[in-house]
Amino acid sequence: MIGKPSSLKCLMAFFLLLNCTFLFAQERVVTGKIKDPSGNPLPGVNVNVFGTRISVTADVTGTFRIPVSSESSVLVFSFVGFLQKEQKVGGDSAFNIMMTYDNADLDQVVVVGYGTSKRRDLTGSVYSVKPGMVTAQPTANAMEALQGRVPGLEIARSSGAAGGGVNIQLRGNRTLNGTTLGVAGSTATPLFIIDGFQGGNISDINPNDIESVEVLKDASATAIYGWMGANGVIIVTTKKGKDRPKVSYNGYYGINGYASYPKARIGDSYVQLRREAWRTTGDWASPADDGKIWTNAGEAQAIANNQWVDWQHLLVRNGIEQSHTASIQSGGDKTKVFFSTGYYKEQGQLRGNDFTRFNMRLNYDQKISNIFKAGLLTTFVWTNTNNRPDPLNYATGSISPLGQAYDSLGNIKWLPLGVSNGAKNPLGDEAPGAYKNNVIRGAGTVNGYLEITPMTGLSFRSNLGTSVAFQRQGLYMDSLSYSNYGLPSLARQTTTFTRFYNWDNILTYTKKIEDHSITLTGITSFTRSDEDQLQAEGRRQGLSSFQYYNLGATEASATRLISSGLVRSATMSYAGRLNYSFAGKYLLTGTIRADGVSRLSPGHKWDYFPSAGIGWNIHQEDFMKDFYWVNNLKIRATYGVAGNAGIAPYATQSVVNTTAQGGQGQNFGDIPAPGYYFTTTAGNPNVGWEKTASTNIGLDYAFFKSRIYGTLDVYKAHTKDVLMKRNLPTSTGTSNIYQNIGETENQGVELVLSSLNTKGRDFRWTTTVTFTAASEKIVNLIDGKDIIQAETNSLLIGHPVNSFYSYKKLGIWQTDEKDAAAAVKWNGQTGFNPGDIKLQDYDHNDSITIADQHYLGSTVPKWYAGLQNTFTYKGLELSVYIFARWGQMFNATYMGKYNPNGNGNGPANFNYWTPENPTNDFPRPNRKTPINQYNGYQSLNFIDGSYVKLKTITLAYTLPAQISRKVFTDKFRIYATANNVFTVTKSNLLKSYDPERSGAEDNPLTRQFVIGVNADF
């Protein structure tokens, strides 16, 4: 008698049957070749069996092999820049697949907050940077290459010094507080998410490691990141491993020279200014009187010896810039690895200024099973920066071009004119041992994730990461250096140790029922930031060779100081998101996020921020079938509220410091007794969230087989309870306090228009235009009145945060206006004369007073735009990029380098008024009147900063594939690039000046010429 089978035997039989069924179903393998529209092999195409996790990648010849389960299986082919293609297997075993270009990239998968989405399913305003755009311009910072290429995103290099960073702002400035320790008018920058993690530094990333960049602009797109995304979000994804191994080298080498900077007066130009200054007071009439004008004995002697010095020529050199990156992408079905190492070196225009960076990155992804997947994303960066103060403004506007820069032995002559009252030598910091400012920084990021997919449509991912950075700054200034001339030598060391921790948990559920598609996302997010700093300094260093290393050798006195501190802040957040789609036509996104931050006042730390977005893919409607020329047409609309808590940690508290530092405080005999005092910022228990409600309406379009495509966005944002560090009366005993004091409003229009102008077998011409027209203004302040603080940072209702408030210059009073000039009084007393500054009399009372100071303009442009044209012929490519910024005003501080008394220097292109030269640029020289004593001199600095710049030109050649293989490469490209080529300005006053620095007089931008190579093996 046969007994009843046991449960264990039944279970084993079931698994054996299941395994046999699986093996039987996988016995069939289909193959094929994939080509582009020109018939060339297309490697890297992803081939997936629809509805399964089975996928492969086409090899270098475009060939693929993939197992299928039945004739009803459907293969899905996808590749960036091409339309997704589906192919039913049927009874065939081999296929020839022709991919079609998709300029609109509707099926492109883009990275959004805590997930991905197809472009056709987006409701928010998300702009994707195309592959290769990040490396289109040779630069150490990837964001600099995107200037003008993303509508709504303003990017400008902050300094022309080696290793200089960039200023970034998305959709204008809506806060008075910003992120720079609460300084009014500082800009609030977007949040950077690097490989799904916060806390990274974009300047640490090698641009060659970046795979894609997405810019999230409206509340619907950024709401999932809560208050940290209040100023926009930039998501950066670095490269990952691939099934097909690839080794790459990217490198370039070039020179840097100043793009444009005014030359100083020298020779006749300098002498003539001195003559005119003395002529005005009646002390000079002809060259016979030249002996009177050289009152400085050193200058008189130098004139007699014809000793002229071109200080700019001696200070400036051609810098060098080079970059080298090697990487490998490899892996298989379960393991994928990307490793890269990079070296970047930039030598500045000034001796003693250079920047060196080493990068290493390892991205490791492991498929443990069909359920578990894990990965590790690590990076390490080491930088070494040597800085020095920029003496160019001094060499251009102050020091006389007379004298000797070096003595007879070739050593720097500290006093070029050889007299005690003469100016110091701007080359002083270049003397051996005179000056050293060195910053060494090491930073590492380790991010790990575990992803669990227990069933189809459900996934859980946990991200845990940390960023750690250590920085040491050493500073030594000798008593004879340019920076510290005449003062005791100074030695200082500052060390900073920062840590950032980020732990995110994301639960995602996706379900499709007939025409309904739903994705639910739940998130928890925790971050913590710690920073501690130690600084020690002393005066009168024992030996200059000690520099900042032996601080114990400095003078033991009250000048020896030591200080340290710790700053910590933390956040906790919960969020949920719903994405719904019906038939791929009607889209809905809803998000709610709760944020709690430590830096706000008790009782005000938590708040909720909702958003919603809808979309309609019109081109998929039946009534659009006859409009065959419409390939994409989608309307989007979003609304949301975002919070901002961007104030300094502990800013809501009254913090106590000790007076014991540096020997201060009290003593009881030999026993020190430190005292305590409150810091200058008073505590406020009522500081809460700054909230921005924004609306965005967008249109995505593609016409004529996607030959013309782009986006159009219109937005408006209203911010209330604006955070500000407000000044307090001195009688309070403190200086300032944080408060929620007002409202601001931002609105704008953003347009992207791309076109495929010509498409032939060998020739292709594409154009992309990005255009942004935006405005911003303060709607209300705490008492409904303007806050007049200074000419450059007053807060004016109805105008942008960064506005200028001063006298308005109309020109220069001319000779035929003598009577009219005399009738206008300065503060009701002294009249004006021909050659004086002509100012706007707003109240028409013939008296220029403080009441005639008004709003002049703002740093906010009326519009800015980029124009990219790319021409390709076979392997040859020419790319030309133009950038424009129009309608803004500059506080051109270098305008103050005009020295009308003739005792200093100044830019040679400054055109000043004389009876024979009735210009409206600068007033008449006067030896008895320095510039800051001219009535209305403040108005000289504020000028129109509109400009158009030929930003980048690149000429490249890519070897044909058959030739590349002969030299053992898959792809070999050589190129030459010129950057910051040429600029046209609206104002003639900006002649010989690169306006991207917004009127700053130090560290001008550089013009670069490089030659580079890209090679894949």
UniProtKB/TrEMBL annotation:
GO terms for cellular component: cell outer membrane. InterPro entries: Beta-barrel_TonB_sf, CarboxyPept-like_regulatory, Plug_dom, Plug_dom_sf, TonB-dep_OMP_SusC/RagA, TonB-dep_OMP_SusC/RagA_CS, TonB-dep_rcpt-like. Keywords: Cell outer membrane, Membrane, Receptor, Signal, Transmembrane, Transmembrane beta strand, Transport. It holds the Pfam family Plug. It comes from the Bacteria. It is found in: Cell outer membrane. Residues 1-25 form the signal peptide. It is a multi-pass membrane protein. This is TonB-dependent receptor plug. Its main location: membrane. Belongs to the TonB-dependent receptor family. SUPFAM superfamilies: Carboxypeptidase regulatory domain-like, Porins. Gene3D superfamilies: Carboxypeptidase-like, regulatory domain, TonB-dependent receptor, beta-barrel domain, TonB-dependent receptor, plug domain. Residues 119-233 form the TonB-dependent receptor plug domain.
